[in-house]
């Protein structure tokens, strides 16, 4: 048996046992027909969207990693729903991030790779929708869908901060920072960003509501972020709020504090840093979950978690980071680049111990949150939305989703034009590299994409190729202005 599969079975059993041990009150409510989740559903629940950066499917306890310590994420999965097959809209950061906010494929809104654009104000985002119902909205962490400093000049991208897209408050960086001491280039780092020991990218990367932040920026970067999240939650405990928290962890430069590295004495240096910074992030997620319970608002707060794509190329190839056995990694159209760890928690609404292998995606966040907080009518009919409402799936009313999923990553100047479509159990992909081949896989029989059926199944190849072309053409019309008034 595949080692990760064996670990996954063990992890799943532990999740169920944890749920049974810790959720008796929720179960009792479920058994009482007069105390159903639907009848107790808040009309304006709080929404928290958590996202890690470059965390592989196999780099979390609830997906079977027996070494990496993520007790709070494991607790979330146990208390709510664990998504076994949750896909990022693209195999890298910026395109996926936009999909989380818009419910649309990256090829629709024109962010096709990292640092190649910025979020257009014509897009309708989750915070813009929720503000119409008097939600307070805030963003924390890595933005990466536009510059956050007005005077920042670059050959790629443009100024498009969170405040242009519905967020009342923000504490954000444009892109990556070291995961420990985020303002300083770490020891031994010899790539982009700066010289060892010098200021990271020449200065202070965080901007808070338009002003460069210069206080409380030392130590674990996830703690630096959460120190801004907690006051926002406390200040808005009596009114509905949206908190979008996008951690930098575990994106390179991957650095952990000594106390976190010591948790993994038998791991190599690279894995000590990777595991250490993920555990530090998990600790801050636990801090947030504890605060919700302290304030007594956990039952009117839904919390989502996912990664933005698979693990970084180098860390995956060296076996430091894990895709859980799935082929590929970040920057590839294989499932190792697209499948990410994901879960959601809403005590009293999402049954504890829920697990689904239905294929879900980051494009599903907007229609799900709109359905929960506003109703389906809140979505503009003139604006194509590619996601679906996941609440019926998360509450056990349906088992599967009948839809196709499209993924893309394009940087034509480098010959990169990666695309993929999943239709039913079949996946067609065009490799994201110059001269990349077209591949066809039956994921029901070949989840690790080892047996290319493009030559053996020409009819299936033709059908999926046509579907892919139709979706891409629709996205190009959106990207060229069909969805906006000029």
List keywords for this structure.
486 residues, alpha/beta, Alkaline Phosphatase, subunit A, 10-stranded mixed sheet
Characterization of the model:
- With 486 residues, the protein is an alpha/beta fold.
- It folds into two domains: 3-394, Alkaline Phosphatase, subunit A; 405-482, Arylsulfatase, C-terminal domain.
- 31% of the residues lie in helices and 17% in strands.
- The protein is built from 14 helices and 14 strands.
- The protein has helices at residues 3-22, 24-31, 71-79, 93-102, 106-109, 126-131, 221-235, 258-261, 269-294, 313-317, 335-338, 365-373, 391-394, 458-482; strands at residues 46-52, 81-87, 136-142, 169-173, 207-208, 211-212, 241-246, 301-307, 339-345, 354-361, 405-411, 416-423, 426-430, 438-442.
- A ten-stranded mixed sheet has the order 6-5-4-3-7-1-8-9-2-10.
- A hairpin with a 4-residue loop joins strand 11 (405-411) and strand 12.
- Helix 7 runs parallel beside helix 9 (269-294).
- The radius of gyration is 21 Å and the shape is globular.
- The N and C termini lie far apart (57 Å).
Main pleated sheet = 10 strands, mixed
Assembly level: single chain
**Beta fraction:** 15-25%
Mean pLDDT: 91
The CATH superfamily of the largest domain is known as Alkaline Phosphatase, subunit A
H/E series: HHEHEHHHEEEEHEHHEHHEEHHEEEEH
- In CATH, the topology of the largest domain is named Alkaline Phosphatase, subunit A
Q: Give the uncertain stretches in residue-range form.
A: 1-39
Radius of gyration of CA atoms, rounded to a whole number: 21 Å
Number of domains: 2
Q: What is the straight-line distance between the termini?
A: 57 Å
Q: Helical segment tally? A: 14
Q: Which second-level CATH architecture of the largest domain applies?
A: 3-Layer(aba) Sandwich
Numbering strands along the chain, what is their spatial order in the largest sheet?
6-5-4-3-7-1-8-9-2-10
What is the CATH first-level class name of the largest domain? Answer: Alpha Beta
**Shape verdict:** globular
State the total count of DSSP E strands: 14
Structural class of the helix and strand makeup?
alpha/beta
Helix content: 25-40%
Signal peptide: 1-28
Organism: Aporhodopirellula rubra
GO molecular function, one term: arylsulfatase activity
Keywords: Hydrolase, Signal
């Amino acid at each position: 048996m595949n080692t990760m599969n064996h670990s996954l079975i063990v992890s799943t059993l532990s999740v169920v046992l944890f749920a049974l041990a810790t959720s008796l009150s929720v179960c009792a409510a479920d058994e009482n027909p007069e105390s159903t989740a639907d009848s107790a559903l808040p009309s304006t629940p709080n929404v928290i969207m958590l996202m890690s950066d470059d965390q592989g499917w196999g780099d979390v306890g609830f997906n079977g990693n027996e070494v990496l310590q993520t007790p709070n994420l494991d607790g979330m999965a146990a208390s709510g729903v664990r998504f076994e097959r949750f896909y990022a809209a693209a195999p890298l950061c910026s395109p996926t991030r936009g999909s989380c906010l818009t419910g649309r494929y990256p090829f629709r809104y024109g962010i096709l790779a990292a640092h190649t654009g910025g979020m257009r104000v014509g897009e309708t985002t989750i915070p813009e929708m929720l503000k119409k119902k008097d939600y307070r909205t805030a963003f924390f962490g890595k933005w990466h869908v536009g510059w956050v400093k007005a005077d920042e000049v670059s050959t790629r991208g443009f100024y498009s901060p969170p405040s242009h897209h519905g967020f009342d408050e923000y504490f954000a960086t444009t892109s990556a920072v070291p995961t420990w001491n985020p303002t300083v280039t770490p020891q031994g780092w010899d790539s982009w960003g700066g010289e060892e020991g010098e200021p990271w990218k020449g200065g202070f990367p965080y901007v808070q509501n338009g002003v460069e932040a210069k206080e409380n920026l030392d130590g674990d970067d996830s703690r630096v972020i959460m120190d801004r999240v907690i006051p926002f939650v406390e200040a808005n405990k009596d009114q509905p709020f949206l908190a979008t928290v996008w951690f930098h962890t575990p994106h390179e430069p991957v650095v952990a504090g000594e106390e976190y590295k010591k948790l993994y004495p038998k791991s190599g240096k690279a894995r000590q840093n990777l595991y250490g910074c993920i555990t530090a992030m998990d600790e801050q997620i636990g801090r947030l979950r504890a605060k919700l319970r302290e304030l007594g608002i956990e039952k009117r707060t839904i919390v989502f978690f996912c990664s933005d794509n698979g693990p970084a190329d180098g860390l995956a190839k060296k076996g430091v980071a894990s895709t859980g056995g799935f082929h590929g990694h970040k920057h590839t159209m294989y499932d190792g680049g697209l499948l990410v760890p994901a879960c959601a928690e809403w005590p009293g609404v999402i049954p504890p111990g829920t697990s689904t292998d239905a294929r879900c995606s980051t494009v599903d966040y907007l229609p799900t949150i709109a359905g929960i907080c506003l109703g389906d009518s809140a979505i503009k009919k003139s604006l194509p939305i590619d996601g679906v409402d996941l609440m019926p799936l998360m509450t056990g009313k349906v088992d599967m989703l009948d839809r196709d999923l499209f993924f893309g990553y394009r940087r034509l100047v480098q010959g990169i034009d990666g695309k993929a479509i999943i239709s039913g159990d079949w996946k067609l992909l065009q490799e994201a590299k110059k001269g990349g081949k077209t591949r066809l896989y039956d994921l029901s029989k070949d989840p690790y994409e080892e047996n290319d059926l493009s030559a053996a199944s020409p009819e299936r190849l033709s059908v999926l190729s046509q579907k892919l072309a139709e979706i891409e053409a629709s996205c190009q019309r959106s990207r060229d202005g069909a969805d906006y008034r000029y």
